[in-house]
Amino acid sequence: MEKRQDLWSSKLGFILSTAGAAIGLGAIWKTPYVTGMNGGGAFFLVFVILTLLIGLPMLLSEFIIGRSTGKEAISAYKQLAPRSLWVWIGRIGVIGCFLLLSFYSVVGGWVLIYTLKSLTGGVIGEQVNYVALFGETISSPSTTLLGLGLFIAINVFVLAGGIQAGIERANKILMPLLFLFFIAIVIRSLTLPGAMEGVKFFLMPSFENMTSQAFLYALGQSFFSLAVGFSCMVTYSSYLKKDVSLVSSANSVVWMNIFVSLLAGLAIFPVVFSFGLQPDEGPGLLFMVLPEAFGQMAFGQLFLALFLMLFLFATLTSSFSLFEIIIAALTASGKKRRVPTTLMIGLIVFIAAIPSALSSSTLADFSIFNRSVFDLTDFVVSNVLLPLGSLLIAIFIGWKMNKTLVKEEFLTANRHGEGLFHVWYYGMMKFFVPIVIAIVFVISLKG
Length: 447
Hints:
Elements: H1 11-22, H2 25-37, H3 41-69, H4 73-80, H5 87-119, H6 130-138, H7 141-159, H8 163-190, H9 195-203, H10 212-224, H11 232-237, H12 246-274, H13 289-294, H14 300-331, H15 338-357, H16 373-400, H17 403-411, H18 418-445
Helix pairs in contact: 1-8, 1-12, 1-14, 2-10, 2-12, 3-4, 3-9, 3-10, 3-12, 3-16, 3-17, 3-18, 4-5, 5-7, 5-14, 5-15, 5-16, 7-14, 7-15, 8-12, 8-14, 9-12, 14-15, 16-18
């Protein structure tokens, strides 16, 4: 096996970067608003349980595939199952990440624009119509394209530096800042009048509002929020040294993700309830409801800016992993250099994202299957490619990959975990996890 030249410098660097990849739109934006739309505490409790039952073994599986080969996604499956169709798991991952970036970067651009506006006092105020402001932002071609371009440019700048000097260095700065800003916002939120009503809504389970549809949303969110399914974590773990426990690393990443989801809820719901707003506002919670709420509190401008900055950090750390799987696939042979390849990919993603960026403006009347380009790309990625990739990875690790190799990676630096391997992990990946993902996949296709 060819030795990787650019590895994570430490276990901490790997965990922070992997957690950064997982902690993004899913944990900070989607989990709170989906929780709000599905009854609060009961949904969040089910989400946590399913994250441990489904998300953790799936994340560990991608770690095992990547570290065992020391190769990026496509090459990893080629090595483990040569001359077979299993290589398409890696290819689906690369294609999926590219499509995901074509609309994820648009949302990243919105967050970046809102962050810049908040720093200049342009987001909240007595005369600001928050719904209209968001509509004006996403319906302005120049604004959305500017945000998109800046967001991708930041990614290119960081990723051109490689693993240690680029991704790891950025995450070691951004992730601690994310937690610091989050804690400051949570403390402020919890000191508002009526804040405890929001805490009760978020943390006290009331299963009377927990429908079967809500359960399925929690199930999908449990593994989607960990960035598994597109083999991003296969690529990240391929840069990991052999003396690191994959089990403890996966466990750390999962609990960090749950903790951030918890902080997001504690930052958002007390504010929403304190000012008599609705927790079930859906995707507009971040861009329309929260600015209105922050605008009514002391030092609201400051805390909204902090919240948007931490959201921007999380969006960036996730996008690093999406770009990296594409960059690694194209530079795997050693024939292409990283910097020009990164620049080329950044330009291609920018061009591919233009239709999604203009879906609320120039292309507002254009639709495919009654969906805008943005919504159609989101549907294909979230409802087709992501669950398909997750299902194939689960089947591969449980039924195709050599069990001895799987066990060896599982037990590396974790020599007392043989019972855990047989009783929990392998049985889960062979039967329970693929069956559950298959159910979600079938139902998601109807969405």
